[in-house]
Design goal:
2 domains; 41% helix; Rossmann fold; 10 strands; two-stranded antiparallel ribbon; homodimer; 16% strand; 10 helices; alpha/beta
Chain lengths: 226, 226
């Protein structure tokens, strides 16, 4: 089973590595890392990874994993990436995403009218692209499987493992990666974090993203909803 | 604040990338990736990363993060790595580990008599190196901060974030990475997984690890304890 983990400039590393650590443990997994060019790719916080493949060497994957980014608009405008995604969709049994990665399928014209989840701060954008956006942590609308923000990729990949290989393998991989989460705080969703923290986090985020207008619009909406 | 994320052949990528995604969001973080040689380093499931530094260019980090490995004995015998860890320990305020990474501090002679946690399947090994091994998910015994297996690095890093920068930043980062875990199964610890799954998982692991004798000993102990 050819697994294409997609990397592009400024991708978020945990979006990719969470599912990778789960899916690479499948007995049938042939793990590949695809970029549109064969050169090292730098994640948004500095980790640099080396792709194994380009579109020419991996035209027909069985499963695609697309991570998100804190600067999410770059990949949505990357025609070489979108061309490959459209081509890969013809062979792949599963098209998965984490975080804002769902936007890549939408930009490729594949996700219109389908259900998907994404990072909480990206829901409006994804909805504006014609997607039926959910706030669930994992959404399956075959062949699409989407996870919410960043760390949700682990839950997405375990859910998909169970779907493809059964619950026993999913539980075994969960045990091997000791995924018994004990977050020291309970602030992992906007609902749990509350208005003040959401606004403060977005304000901080606005300073570093490529979409300050978008973040400001979300802030304005939050302020109006209080 | 100079952060040294250590990479070595066959490290487990999620061990490293979990803490990286949290710590790189600190306002003071200067993120570095240290290897003993300046060449790409391949993780145990195939992800290849490019280090930014070698011991010569990063002699005095403020914080060290050492990941574990499914083939954990390599780094314990890497004298160049152990030499650097001993040197780094003289400047670093915090010496952190995930999974079997705690063994590197022990092999460097730094962790004897100190409390630490590690991957559940590595507890006996770490104890045999003179460490007071805990089964907790995160253990702080300053300057050491250790996380249990693989995914526990996220909890470790959020705990450390709160200790250094306060709970507000930890909660903000938790929200940004949408760390609201919803594992589809409850098999993330040996206690929760139960004997059958633990034994089956270890038997599968024995086929791929560099320590089949060690895994067999753990299996024998489990069988004897039933």
């Amino acid at each position: 089973m050819e697994i294409a983990f997609v990397v592009y400039d400024a991708f978020t590393a945990l979006d990719l590595v969470g599912p990778y650590e789960v899916i690479a443990a499948w007995p049938t997994a042939h793990v590949r890392f695809l970029a549109t060019e064969q050169r090292p790719v730098r994640a948004d916080s500095g980790l640099t990874v080396v792709p194994t493949d380009t579109p020419a060497s991996l035209p027909r994957p069985d499963l695609v994993v697309i991570p998100g980014s804190s600067r999410p608009f770059g990949p949505l405008q990357d025609q070489a990436l979108l061309d490959w995604v459209r081509q890969a969709a013809q062979s792949a049994t599963w098209l998965t995403s984490v975080c804002t990665g769902a936007g890549v399928y939408a930009a490729a014209g594949l996700l219109g009218g389908r259900r998907a989840t994404t990072h909480w701060a990206f829901r409006e954008v994804l909805a504006s692209m014609g997607v039926d956006v959910s706030s669930e942590r994992v959404v399956i609308d075959e062949p699409f499987v989407s996870g919410a923000g960043v760390s949700a990729g682990i839950d997405m990949a375990l859910t998909l493992t169970a779907r493809i290989h059964g619950a026993d393998l999913a539980r075994s991989i969960q045990l091997m990666i000791e995924y018994d989460p004990q977050p020291p705080f309970d602030a992992g969703s906007p609902e749990k974090a509350g208005h003040e923290l959401v606004a403060a986090t977005l304000a901080q985020f606005a300073a570093s993203t490529d979409t300050p207008d978008l973040v400001q619009a979300t802030l304005d909406r939050l302020a109006a909803s209080r």
